[in-house]
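Attaching the record inline, Q. Sequence:
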Amino acid sequence: MPSETPYEITPTTRYDDPYYRPTTVRQPVILPADIPPGIDWVTLPNGVRTLAYTHSTQTPTAPAAVSQPIPSWAKTTALLAPTVGGGIAAAGIGLSYAAPGLIAMSHALWSAAALVVAAIAVPVLLRTARRAASGTGQGHGGAATQITQNITATGLFGRANGTINHR
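Structure, as predicted:
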């Protein structure tokens, strides 16, 4: 059987005690010398000042890398690359427009080459055939004709005399 309490339980508070005064909690005071590195006083947007982690303002132990100037060959190459690429592209476009004319020119050059070969080969073949028919060639029993010239002159501006001998 549950026990029923005839009274109400309330916590005891001493606020109504005229002699009890709760002590105010005092925050410890931090001196600037006691603040560790990386922590500093900051003011928040609402105006409250508080301690917070900050970036170190100390100089790094390793020296910072000094930026090197860009070499002139790299600048030249960088400026030349788009120019060369544009020239190649323009040449490709020009060749595509000139292709029919180049094909016709190629046929004309082959025809000209055939004409030159015929102009040289036909006289050589005729001369060879004529020598073979007349029998004066060196390989057909006939002796080759030999011509000797003797030229003499007297003085720097003297008249020249010469003889021609056929054998």
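The helical segments are 72-134. The beta strands are 39-43, 49-53, 147-153, 160-166.

More tomorrow.
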